[in-house]
Specification:
Layout lengths: L1 H5 L3 H23 L5 H15 L9 H25 L10 H4 L4 H14 L4 H12 L4 H8 L3 H21 L1 H15 L1
Helix pairs in contact: 2-3, 2-4, 3-4, 4-8, 6-10, 7-9, 8-9
GO molecular function: DNA binding; sigma factor activity
Keywords: DNA-binding, Sigma factor, Transcription, Transcription regulation
Organism: Sorangium cellulosum
Length: 187
């Protein structure tokens, strides 16, 4: 597959897109949060993947390569957004309809408050939290995707989880909503 991709075979690019784009899109949408233009960022991930695939040393690591490109681009995008926010060039975004549809207004509000909490995390901590708790990736998978050690993943995840838990506990309605979600997940 990688050789065909490096040779510019259209079918190979389509196969890589079909295999990885849905997960990349979910990760992008969850890390960037509401109002994010996840489709554009996802496309940019694959533009970078296709242009840099020639540097891939292990053809069996294509999936890890795609996710590491995704994580690097997301970190850059989060930094860019923070700078824009500091300079007051961006407005607060509304939750897009498709991000949580079809759900009730309570769910929309809870998701908005959760993303506000995630927005207080560093790009590294937020990425680790989203990959683990929203994407369900294992710790070794996160380490591989982010290019950091397992110990660093654990530290970032611990810091992020502690911060999110602390903030959720301060918001009784959000805490209650999250508890209802956990009860549904357990059944």
């Amino acid at each position: 597959m990688v050789r065909a991709l490096m040779a510019g075979e259209p079918w190979a690019a389509a196969a890589v897109w079909n295999a990885h784009a849905p997960k990349v899109f979910r990760i992008v949408a969850r890390v960037l949060g509401p109002g994010a233009d996840a489709e554009d960022v996802t496309q940019e991930v694959f533009v970078r993947v296709f242009s840099r695939v020639s540097g891939l040393r292990d053809p069996d690591a294509l999936g890890s390569f795609v996710y590491s490109v995704t994580v690097r681009l997301l970190k850059w995008e989060l930094r860019r957004r923070r700078v824009r926010r500091i300079l007051q060039l961006s407005d607060t975004a509304e939750l897009p309809e498709q991000a949580v549809a079809p759900v009730d207004s309570e769910a929309r509000e809870a998701l908005g408050r959760l993303y506000a909490i995630l927005d207080t995390l560093s790009a590294d901590d937020r990425t680790a939290f989203v990959l683990r708790h929203m994407e369900g990736m294992s710790l070794p998978e996160i380490a591989e995707a982010t290019g950091i050690s397992l110990a660093t993943v654990k530290r970032r995840l611990s810091r992020a989880t502690e911060r999110v838990s602390s903030e959720v506990e301060k918001d009784m309605s959000l805490a209650a909503y999250c508890m209802r979600g956990e009860a549904r997940d357990d059944s």
